[in-house]
Amino acid sequence: MSDQVLKETLRRLAEESRPARISPDTWQLGRRRRRRQVGAALVALVAVLAGMPLLLPALPDAGPAPGTANRPVVPSRVYPPMTGEATVLEDPPGPAALVVAGDQELRGSDIWGWEGRSLVVGRDGSYRLARTVGETTAGTEDLLLSPDGRRLAAQPWLEGSRWPDDPIGQTAILDLNTGQARQYAGGLPVVWAPDGRRLLVMAQSIDGRLGRLSLLDPATAALHQLPQITGTFRPGNLAAFSPDGSRLAVATTHALHIIDLASGTTRTLGALTWRDRLAGPGAWLPDGDRIAIWSIGDCEDGGSCDEGRLARRSIHISYWYARTGAPAIGPTLPPARGLAARLLGWQRDGDAVVAEYQPEKGLAKRPDDQLWSETGWTQVGAVTLREFRPDGSRPELVELPSSALFVDVPADLLDSFGGPSPSWPEGAARWLLAVWWPLGQFLVALVGLTALVASRRMVARRRQTRLRGRS
Amino acid sequence: MDADRQSFEAYVQARGPGLSRHAYLLTGDHHLAEDLVQQTLLRVAGRWARVVAGGDPDPYVRRALYHQHVSWWRWRARQVPEAPLDAADRPVSDEADEVAVALAVRAALGRLAPRQRAAIVLRYFGDLSEAQIADTLGCRVGTVKSQLRDGLARLKVLAPELVELLEVRS
């Protein structure tokens, strides 16, 4: 068959065709169809993103394997929580390995009614949200994990508790095995005792002065008041139990006090300068004879200080004898750097676990700032969890989300770092959603609105078509 | 009326008959051809601004038409029948051999695979090069060559009388 014959034949066949009748509504119908396609794609995208938290745990090999007695359980990397992540009330995770609070996706939103949405990571690697009415800290003034990680002590704005009409404040303790919260009178949480059977609480004060300290027994709700100590204080570095739980170190801004819990007596161990801080809840060395003190190198002379200086300042560690207050010899650790540091405790090999805080962007310290707190929500801009070693190194123990500002680890797990993290696809999804966090909420609202408007228009159009058909 | 809509309607006015001819050769049926053109234009209208921004709309529209046709066939949403031979559709030529050729080619076209049919229509009716056909069908030039070769071979198998007719004429 020659090409020319085939061409002529096709041309003859084509001449038989009738010009298609094109609907005059083609333009509108085409545009409308396109809008529907785009809307459907958006809805599908949002559905996939919103459904991801439900799908990921069902995937084979999703998430880390549960920890065992011989396996580290504190994950080496923590990813941001996702929208729709289950809360500690909805699906209690069991004993926790870590709690992290912060900004952006960890901050939550007024849209959902919870401005704080801290992430609790279970020992089995599960992620749960601990939601609070406002933005919250973890470890410094709120969200304190018990040494075994089974309970979470918080101010009573934690989901599952109710804010009381109580001028001295109350503490909510959430059982992470059952999801049940119980409230206790006596004050706000400060620090857990090493055995986890007592919690130090402090009566709320509004003038920056130390409130009445008490020991709370969560099992019986019994409250044992401690001797009165007066003075102003720094919330993040207020008190530390001795390793055997028999003594309590309490730091005001001017002095370090020791309370003997058996006899109920108090003595002042020594004066603290404006540069000195009790090192943190793990300030006592494991021998129970020495107490670690931070000494801050800059910005504590009463003058103004900008973010750069606050970020660069060195925080050196020193030791006092707990009996005499005299300077003591202790592990030679590298200095912390930044806004503040909290010593969470000691590992068996003598290394210290330290949370190191950096200043918020643009932060400036002014001499007349009455609300200044170097471990407060508005001052802290980042946190890292490090292991301070006598050889001078200070490796990062857990890679936290970039929005993390506060972190707490149960005292019994300080030798259990390096545990498994979520799989990389789950990590990537969590990271992507965190990047899209503010826009994601807007997108959900936009898709909802679009679907509503589109469905109303469709109903109206069908009604008009029916009316036209009748007439 | 906005400028996009005006330019779209002007395009439909000018190119509608040409699209109808392509659609008829692909489907072999007037009603299916009309549906194919209508569906293609609906799709094009939704993206018109981007189509005209890219320059000449013809390649995009042609691509949309051919993909829509293949999509119909693939999903069996609409059965593409062989061209019916009712009296109304018959050509009005006086020459008996030309009529026979046209009928044989149309019947054979209806039995080709849609991509072979599309390649033959684009090559011998649309006068497109193999590269342009590859662009339209979204495949490689080598694939177009094999589709044309196989399509023509199949035409000869499906209509052996056509070969004889052509041999007599030549």
Please give a structural write-up.
The longest helix of chain A is centred in the C-terminal third of the chain and has 34 residues, at 437-470. The two termini of chain A are 58 Å apart. Chain A has helices spanning 3-15, 26-55, 307-312, 424-435, 437-470; strands spanning 74-75, 96-102, 116-122, 127-132, 144-145, 151-154, 170-175, 181-185, 188-192, 199-202, 213-217, 222-225, 239-241, 247-251, 255-260, 265-271, 276-278, 290-296, 314-321, 327-328, 336-337, 340-346, 352-359, 380-388, 396-398, 404-408, 417-419. Chain A is of the alpha+beta class. In chain A, a hairpin with a 5-residue loop joins β5 and β6. The longest helix of chain B has 25 residues, at 3-27. With 170 residues, chain B is mostly helical.
Q: Give the overall average pLDDT of chain B.
A: 79
Shape assignment of chain B: globular
Strand content of chain B: under 5%
Got a strand count of chain A? 27
Keywords:
heterodimer; A: alpha+beta; 27 strands; B: 170 residues; mainly alpha
Short description:
The complex is a heterodimer of chains A (471) and B (170). Chain A is of the alpha+beta class and 471 residues long.
Question: What does the secondary structure layout of this molecule look like, with pairings?
Answer:
The complex is a heterodimer of chains A (471) and B (170).
Chain A: H1 3-15, H2 26-55, E1 74-75, E2 96-102, E3 116-122, E4 127-132, E5 144-145, E6 151-154, E7 170-175, E8 181-185, E9 188-192, E10 199-202, E11 213-217, E12 222-225, E13 239-241, E14 247-251, E15 255-260, E16 265-271, E17 276-278, E18 290-296, H3 307-312, E19 314-321, E20 327-328, E21 336-337, E22 340-346, E23 352-359, E24 380-388, E25 396-398, E26 404-408, E27 417-419, H4 424-435, H5 437-470
Parallel strand pairs in A: 1-27
Antiparallel strand pairs in A: 2-3, 2-26, 3-4, 5-6, 6-7, 7-8, 9-10, 10-11, 11-12, 13-14, 14-15, 15-16, 17-18, 18-19, 19-20, 19-21, 22-23, 23-24, 24-25
Helix pairs in contact in A: 2-5
Chain B: H1 3-27, H2 30-46, H3 48-53, H4 58-75, H5 96-109, H6 114-125, H7 130-137, H8 141-158, H9 160-169
Helix pairs in contact in B: 1-2, 1-4, 2-4, 5-9, 6-8, 7-8, 8-9
